[in-house]
Amino acid sequence: MSKIHKNWTKEMGVIPGDVMRLGRELLETCPHNIKGTARLNYCREIIIEGSRAMKEATCSVTFREAVKVSLRERAGRRPSTLRELRYVCKRILEGSPDIAKMKLRRIKTEHCYNVLSSLFPIPRQFRKARVILHSIFACGIRHGWCCSNPVDGVTEPPLAEVEITALAWEKLRKLVQKAREAQHRPCAAMLGVMLWGGIRPAEAQRLRWEDINWEEGIILLPARHSKTGGARCITLHPVLRRWLTQICEGKRRTGLLCPRSWGNRWSKLRRESGIEEWQQDVLRHTFASYHLKHFKELSRLQLEMGHSSLELLRTRYLNMRDITKEHARQFWSPKEWC
To answer: Over 80: is that where the pLDDT of 321 sits?
Structure first.
């Protein structure tokens, strides 16, 4: 072996023969129609791209580490949201230990689909878990641990939507009448903002009397209280204004609208009103249907509901079966209820 080869071998730690064999293997990976200098340039590109990929892989972190950072960044979210985030993350980490140890950059769409379909087989669970998994990779992209979000390629399973109709008129009247009684009066404010404000139950439970602007005639739902994370202004319709004013009895109220032991109180009110079956968000659906029937302004209703598009309203909320024009007028009339 020449002196040059010996020095080169000592410096690099490999012998020239091994380098030649590696070079031959690299040349054999090239397409047969590429010859001469073009073949060498092709090999050079393979080396450059391979080197870049190796460097990127070393800059990544494991999925488990990415989960920790993602949860830490969202530590300020609502307790119920944090519980759901932690539950899904824990289930993925414990149910898929191989994924937990993988570098974030190495995880592909098929890995994500397999995790979601095996651990969250129910469509609604699948969809929620998919959103959370997507957010973990979004965190990774922000930190430079991966270049793309593999969850983008995971198709959501279709949901079998359950038709939700507006609360029947007689049941509605009975519910409102019962809420006026002394024993159920603590629930009256919550009933009012859900029925004539279209506010979701969970949002209403976080609402405070200070969020009502009596002068401007609006209820301001802060972003931290909204399900979708965006603040919205809800019209304080005359019927809702009078309903809440009567509850306040002329006094300025403060604190939460929601009374203590809300769940038990609300169940008892519904039960004594003769409502045996209760659909989630039925008052919000009732609000939407009566709003459109009476005001006939779809864009205005969209703002009141806080929807980013009209599609959800058209497909799920607007069910005006058995709602007459007269009942719609009465629904928004303060004289009918207060």
So the answer is: no
The domain total for the chain is 2
Give the angle subtended at the CA of 286 by the CAs of 280 and 292, to the nearest 5°: 140
**Rounded distance, CA 42 to CA 34, Å?**
8
Residue 115: inside a domain, yes or no? yes
Name which of 73, 71, 75 is nearest 92 in CA terms: 71
247 and 118 belong to one structural domain: no
**DSSP letter string over 312-326?**
HIIIII---TT--HH
Q: What is the CATH number of the domain that holds 297?
A: 1.10.443.10
- 5 belongs to a structural domain: no
Asked whether residue 225 falls in the same domain as residue 289, the answer is yes
User: From residue 121, how far is each of 109, 115, 150, 273 by CA, in Å?
Assistant: 17, 10, 19, 37
Question: Mean pLDDT for the chain?
Answer: 86
User: Residues 217-245: what's their mean pLDDT?
Assistant: 84
Phi, psi of 213 (to 5 degrees): -100, 95
Structure tokens at 223: 């972003």
Mean pLDDT of 96-124: 94
How is the beta sheet containing 218-221 ordered, strand by strand?
212-213, 218-221, 232-235
Q: Is the pLDDT score of 160 beyond 90? A: no
Give this prediction's pTM. Answer: 0.63
Query: Is the domain of 173 the same as that of 225?
Result: yes
Q: Residue 69: which domain range?
A: 63-153
d(C-alpha 91, C-alpha 115), whole Å? 10
Higher pLDDT, 10 or 118: 118
pLDDT given for residue 35 in this prediction? 77
